[in-house]
Amino acid sequence: MGGSAPRREHSLPAETTSFVDRRGELTEGRELLARARLVTLTGPGGVGKTRLAARLAARVRRAFPDGVRIVHLSGLHDPDLVPLAVADALGLHDHSSRPQPDALVEQVRERRLLLVLDNCEHLAAACARLAAALLRGAEGVRILATSRHRLGLTEEHLMEVRPLPVPDPDGDLSAAEGYPALTLFADRAAAVVPGFRLTPANRAAVARLCRRLDGLPLAIELAAVRMRVLDAEQLLARLDDRYRVLTTGSPAAQPRHQTLRAAVAWSHDLCTGPERLAWARLSVLAGTFDAGTAETVCADAPPVTPPGPESLPGPDGPPEWSPGPEPLPCSDGPAVSPPGPEPLPCSDGPPVWLPGPEPLPCSDGPPVWLPGPESLPGSDGPPVWLPGPEPLPGPDGPSVSPPVWSPGPESLPCSDGPPGPGPVLVAGAGTGVGPLFRPLVPPVAEPPSGHPAPSVSGPRDAEDRRAGPRRDFLRADDVLDALAGLVDKSVLERETGPGGVRYRMLDTLREYGLEQLRRVAGEEAARRRQRDHVLRRVEAYERAWFGPGQPEAVARLRADRDALRAALDFSLTTPGEALAGLRLAGTLWFYWHACGASREGLHWLDRALAACPEPTRERARGLWVAGLLAAATQDLPRGRRHAADALALARALGDAPEAAHAEYVIGVIRLFGDDLPGALTHFEATVARGPVPGQHLSLVGLDQVELACALGFLGEADRAVDVCERALRLCERHGEQWVRSYVTRMLALAHTVRGDWARAERHAREALRLKAAVHDVIGMALTLDLLASVAAERGAHERTAVLLGGADRLWSGIHAGRWGSRALNSARGRSEELACRALGQEAFDRAHRHGGGLTLADLTGHALQEPGRPRPGGPDAPQPAQDGRAARLTRREDEVARLVAEGLANQQIADRLVIARRTAEGHVERILGKLGFSNRSQIAAWVAARR
User: Fold this and answer.
1) How many CA atoms lie within 13 A of 92 on its CB side?
2) What is the pLDDT of residues 580-590, one digit of tens each?
3) Given a cut of 50, is residue 174 above it in pLDDT?
4) How confident is the model at residue 352 (pLDDT cuts 50, 70, 90)?
5) Residue 352 forms beta bridges with which residues?
6) Which of 345, 520, 532, 734 is the most buried (most CB within 10 A)?
7) 127, 82 in Cβ contact below 8 A?
8) How far apart are CA 7 and CA 492, in angstroms?
């Protein structure tokens, strides 16, 4: 359920493109980090601060025995979450009730590590406070920050990141390859035009282009992508045109800011309409996201049929609604019947098909609103008013009339037909056939009369006009094409993550997209779609949590942390959305509890519960989850109060499942408070009662785990084993791993009471493997303590010392005093006493240091060793990679290891990678040999630990 980052682990991002030489800056940065503990890289957006910081951190990482960690802050907006985000990046999950900054300082006090804080400018005060606390309280910690401006601390050393140097286009260009700006352009151009290189014929044009872009790396990369369709001279001419348009009237703007904005805006103009719309809507997504998220946030809902007495087939299959007998001729198609004078709501739901028994030819442009006595609400704001009967340019040049909506009783002439009464959307003349109704562009508040509403599609040039009218409507299958186009144009970065391909938008480009989205008041609707998507996904994960997909769910949720935070923040800062935020925070109970995020879960639940005092099911759940998380941070009075309030509210609402969940928390708090008889009585009653309809099976299983725990601590080992075996059968029927890991740990504990050390060790190893698979690091620390006890009783004293060193390391990131538990600390003390007596203090300390220096992956591998197998660090064992990453595995072997961790058999691996089965078997055997493992489960645990 959390834990610390063992030594030599790093979170440096993989570089997907070449790094253009910045030797001078790298040298200066290394020298600064050698003599200063806080170095801030400053410079304008797009100058390359993040990339330089990552490369600099990679260069100096060997100087930091406890690793390098990068904290990406661009997706964070709540200053209170900065310490939690840093702790999360460090793998530190404090379970005390201390203020988070104090706890963080205490946990890293003895460490030597480099912390990279990326994109601090919007959270400068919070970053400065945390940096000051770390500088005062943790002498071994150094901080490398990136920001558009300084943090303002006296200890801070600034390093300005300048644009890349560019040669004089009219000077001697014979050594042009020695200039990083030209090298960057040539490298990125060669990616889209294979074989491109700098030549005497193009050097001057490329130099002028890079100089026009002020040597800004992001601007150069965006321009180089256009080499697919233009040469350098054409690029320069078009960029000059765009620069003049965008910088006119902005004398106060910094020149480099104008340059970058011109380059970004020009890239925006060169996107297709769907790509521009996707860019704007994707700008609400912080961090990385997958294609499913992009489709949900970007795509407009398809038309649906309203209920009524009769429906007729529509143009593409869905029926159209025909409510009235009086047809209206429209456009070139058959008549349609009006629905009446009332307006039709758009809201956030799917658009509505208007009447018509047959498909009508429509223009390719969006529908148009004309004012009437009543207005229709738009997607999330007032109606959109676009020009009425004036013609719009058609696909081949001549004017056509746009579709027109008349919300009042007045009649309006259709394109080619007579007027008709009542509200009706009619189609203008056009060459294509489309649905009768298209959703409107996101609304604006009140555009000037007679002027078109602004569109996120942006201004169109002559090429765009020739391509036909814009569409401010995206279908789901259009989104994938838009994603591909945005990747091609370097607006999105493509990377591999949990579940496959993920995408990321650079901050500068995301800010520009948000500007476009805000121009049309579309931000709230996009953020609501993102929140609803996150809520649906989390609810699906919760429903499936007691099942075989837990490792994948954990990996996805960890990858989506920025999305979770954005969804919660939107809900709790937008009027009318707080209840959805409480629902999301409560539904995430399994993530907060199982994955070591108790402190962050409490942060969101405190805010949500304060915003939603009404007696609802969501509040009942939020209260018991807050009680559970408070208990996990050892704030037992607060936990008891929340759990009692939850139970009372659930009973008042007649909600039996939430009442049962609250009862579980009440029993856990008795157990945590060393009230063993009271806990035993409580859980005997809940287990005897059996599952309540609607109760989550995870909590049904945990009822049995806590009963076994109470029995074990009270010395009733036989009864504890019986309870565990029943719980184990429940978990095995569902393929569940997290609860099962606690069941197997309790079995191991019960067998230690019996003195059956062999069975205890077997069950404890299985528990550790399962806990590693779901990243339950608190559970791993508890299990390592248990394995150390078993090893001490079996006389494996060196193994005992190594396991204690690793366990102490993990506990330092949770609670150095093991929560003050008498049982845990007495067991640890006995293990150390037995090992020291057998080895001597010097040998014990040496083995203990070795265990504390292992990465989480190697520590897990060591603990999972079966008798007779070589141990990591032993004389015949393969040497682990110093930095804890898969440096000893080839890229293919690392890929195979991940597939093994997903549970794939050799034939399935062969099918996935399109290789022979024997080749896959060979890869697996080599992985086992290199890592010193004996079975595939150990590979799975090793991969899970590396996450």
Assistant:
1) 28
2) 999 999 999 99
3) yes
4) very low
5) 304
6) 520
7) yes
8) 33
Cβ neighbourhood burial of 477 (10 Å; 0-12, 13-18, 19+): exposed
Smallest CA-to-CA distance from 70 within 57, 84, 52, 79 is with: 57
Contact between 67 and 855 (Cβ < 8 Å): no
Cα 56–chain centre separation: 25
The predicted pLDDT at position 813 comes to 78
Percent of the chain that is helix, strand, coil (3-state, to 5) = 55, 5, 40
pLDDT of residue 17: 60
Edge-to-edge strand list for the sheet holding 38-42: 68-72, 113-118, 141-147, 38-42, 156-160
Count of residues for the chain? 947
Torsion of CA 579, 580, 585, 591, to 10 degrees: 160
Pair 202, 32: CB distance under 8 Å: no
The C-alpha atoms of residue 29 and residue 41 are separated, in whole angstroms, by 9
The answer to whether 864 and 944 are in contact (CB under 8 A) is no
Rg (CA), the chain: 31
Contact 505, 282 (CB under 8 A): yes
End-to-end CA distance of the chain: 14
DSSP codes of every residue in 621-675: HHHHHHHHHHHHTT-HHHHHHHHHHHHHHHHHHT-HHHHHHHHHHHHHHHHHTT-
Question: Which tops the pLDDT comparison, 796 or 931?
Answer: 796
Tell which phi-psi region holds residue 426, choosing left (phi > 0), alpha (psi between -120 and 50) or beta.
beta
Q: Which residues contact 186 (CB under 8 A, 6 or more apart)?
A: 177, 196, 197, 198, 206
User: Rounded to 5 degrees, what are φ and ψ at 911?
Assistant: -65, -40
Cβ atoms < 10 Å from Cβ of 496:
12
Q: Is 873 left (phi over 0), alpha (psi -120 to 50) or beta?
A: left
Give the Cα separation of 702 and 709 in Å (integer). Answer: 10
Model pLDDT, residue 783: 95
Contacts of 158 (CB under 8 A, 6+ apart): 39, 40, 42, 150
Q: What is the DSSP letter of 213?
A: T
Quote the DSSP letter at residue 392: E
Average pLDDT over residues 418-433: 34
Pairing status of strand 404-405 against strand 425-426: antiparallel
**Residues 136-145: pLDDT tens digits?**
999 999 999 9
Q: Which amino acid is at 665?
A: V
- Using DSSP's 3-state secondary structure scheme, residue 148 falls into coil
Phi-psi map region of 737: left, alpha, beta (phi>0 left; psi -120 to 50 alpha): alpha
Q: CB–CB of 570/525 below 8 Å?
A: no
**Tens digits of per-residue pLDDT, 365-418?**
444 333 333 333 334 444 433 333 333 333 344 333 333 333 333 333 333 433
DSSP states of 287-335: SEEEHHHHHHHHPPPPPBPPP-S-EEE-TTSSEEE---S--EEETTEEE
Judge residue 582's burial from the number of C-beta atoms within 10 Å of its C-beta, 0-12 exposed, 13-18 middle, 19 or more buried: buried
CB atoms within 10 A of CB 480: 14
735-753 exposure pattern, b = at least 16 Cβ within 10 A, e = fewer: ebbbbbbbbbbbbbbbbbb
Rounded CA separation 826/702 (Å): 25
Summarize the confidence of residues 917-941 as an average pLDDT: 78
Q: What contacts 936, CB < 8 A, 6 or more positions away?
A: 900, 924
Give residue-wise pLDDT tens across range 827-843: 899 999 999 999 999 99
Contact 670, 699 (CB under 8 A): no
Q: Given a cut of 80, is residue 254 above it in pLDDT?
A: no
